[in-house]
Specification:
Layout lengths: L6 H24 L7 E3 L12 H10 L2 H19 L4 E7 L17 E6 L25 H11 L5 E4 L16 H12 L1
Parallel strand pairs: 1-2, 2-3, 3-4
């Protein structure tokens, strides 16, 4: 993972994002196709966060590692807004950034969309929130998962859900199904 507190990293990421957006828009305009107004700025898909003294101090300041991610993402989003005011920056709240920062510490900017991905219980070793994917969010087994969803919802900025409709547990040979949880969860997300 990148160190999210280093100014040089922030400058590099901002410059790369501008170049990629400009390149994509130029190509799409040539072919008369619409361009996306959402760009993703997320950590790699693993649970290896930066543990340098600066990142750990920022985690302590914000009360959760998601605060480090939001500080970084907000900085890039503020810069990008000056160049591309129509862009929305999407970032994952996933694994070590799944826990929302406490109220009053830091919040996503208006042009930042949180993409919440709650891993199911089969991944209990990499996340604090133990989601029972077989049951809807209102089920008692999902108290923590529902609370985390509500914690991210409180900011009032765009919130996107990555819901796991397939379980990846290899301990059993029979198929699992999340179908009974789909409709209630979709209604919860839409509310």
């Amino acid at each position: 993972q990148l160190c999210l507190t280093q100014p040089g990293v922030r400058d590099f990421v901002f410059q790369e994002m501008v170049l990629r957006i400009e390149k994509e828009r130029a190509e799409l305009e040539r072919t008369n196709r619409p361009y996306s107004k959402v760009i993703d700025l997320s950590a790699n898909d693993n649970n290896h966060k930066c543990v340098c003294p600066e990142c750990l101090a920022m985690e302590k300041k914000y009360g959760a590692y998601s605060g480090v991610m939001l500080d970084f993402t907000n900085d890039i989003a503020e810069r990008l807004e000056k160049v591309f005011p129509d862009m929305l920056i999407q970032t994952f709240a996933y694994e070590y950034t799944e826990e929302a920062p406490p109220s009053g510490t830091i919040a996503p900017r208006e042009n930042v969309m949180i993409h919440l991905a709650q891993l199911g219980g089969e991944y209990h070793s990499v996340t604090k929130v133990h989601r029972d994917s077989l049951r809807d969010l209102d089920h008692p087994n999902n108290r923590m998962a529902l609370q985390e969803f509500l914690n991210w919802s409180r900011f009032g900025t765009p919130l996107k859900m990555w819901d796991y409709w397939v379980l990846y547990d290899q301990r059993c040979n029979f198929p699992y199904t999340v179908i009974p949880a789909l409709a209630p969860n979709i209604r919860k997300y839409a509310a």
